[in-house]
């Protein structure tokens, strides 16, 4: 489990089992108080809600998890790109005589990319969670992944253009670097927690 939506889904599944008197679910664990419910029934409710029972052996060869983590990484990339590329474009085309250094522009672009990614994730999560929970979950999603993505995009921009500049030849490599850099981490995180929030 990696978010409050996961907690809510598992809680509902377990509370629906006849004989369960109470459930205490937190991210990463569940305590079930029951009378006369066999473990196979509880295991079935847990796996039926999309979770695993016990600690599965970790491997890097799960195609379904790679696909889901690619989907998650794609949405993060879209969110980060809005703020990041928008900031660079603003300094390149609108406020051309700002006097800001490349490093200052890139730091602002990274911060704006993080904010727009959190905003987009919040909007996506509103389908399954109330606003406060959606925002909390979006902010709790992997900051490591978003920072790695932002750093990769901006380093690619500096290496290919020598500064904070957008050209047709740099945007695609920025997106590729921004996608590939956090993708293995996102796979690991999704595989470790066993469920996605998207």
Descriptors for this entry?
198 residues, mainly alpha, Alpha-Beta Plaits, two-stranded antiparallel sheet, 8 helices, 66% helix
Topology:
Blueprint lengths: L3 H12 L4 E7 L2 E6 L4 H10 L14 H32 L7 H24 L5 H10 L2 H19 L6 H13 L2 H11 L5
Antiparallel strand pairs: 1-2
Helix pairs in contact: 3-4, 3-6, 3-8, 4-5, 4-6, 6-7
Q: Runs with pLDDT <50, length 5+?
A: none
Cα end-to-end separation: 12 Å
Radius of gyration, in angstroms, nearest whole number = 21 Å
Shape: elongated
- Biggest sheet details: 2 strands, antiparallel
Strand percentage, roughly? 5-15%
Average pLDDT, rounded to a whole number, is 90
Q: Give the tally of β-strands.
A: 2
The domain tally reads 2
DSSP summary: helix tally:
8
Helix content: 55-70%
Structural summary, described in words:
The protein folds into two domains: 4-48, Alpha-Beta Plaits; 63-193, no CATH class. It has helices at 4-15, 39-48, 63-94, 102-125, 131-140, 143-161, 168-180, 183-193; strands spanning 20-26, 29-34. Helix 3 (63-94) crosses helix 6 (143-161) and helix 3 (63-94) crosses helix 8 (183-193). Helices cover 66% and strands 7% of the residues. The two termini are 12 Å apart. The protein has 198 residues and is mainly α. The radius of gyration is 21 Å and the shape is elongated.
């Amino acid at each position: 489990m990696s978010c409050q939506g996961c907690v809510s889904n598992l809680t509902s599944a377990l509370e629906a089992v006849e004989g369960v008197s109470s459930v205490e679910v937190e991210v990463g664990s569940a305590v079930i108080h029951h009378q006369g419910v066999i473990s196979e029934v509880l295991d079935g409710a847990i796996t039926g809600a999309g979770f695993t029972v016990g600690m599965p052996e970790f491997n890097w060869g799960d195609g379904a998890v790679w696909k889901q983590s690619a989907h998650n990484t794609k949405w993060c990339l879209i969110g980060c790109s809005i703020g990041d590329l928008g900031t660079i474009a603003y300094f390149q085309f609108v406020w051309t005589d700002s006097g800001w250094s490349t490093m200052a522009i890139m730091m602002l672009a990274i911060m704006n990319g993080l904010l727009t990614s959190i905003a987009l994730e919040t909007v996506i999560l509103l389908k399954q969670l109330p606003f406060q929970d959606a925002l909390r979950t979006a902010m709790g999603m992997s900051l490591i992944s978003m920072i790695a993505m932002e750093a990769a995009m901006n380093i690619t921009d500096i290496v290919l253009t020598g500064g904070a500049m957008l050209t047709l030849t740099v945007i695609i490599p920025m997106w590729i670097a921004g996608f590939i850099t956090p993708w293995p981490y996102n796979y690991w995180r999704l595989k470790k927690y066993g469920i996605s929030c998207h």
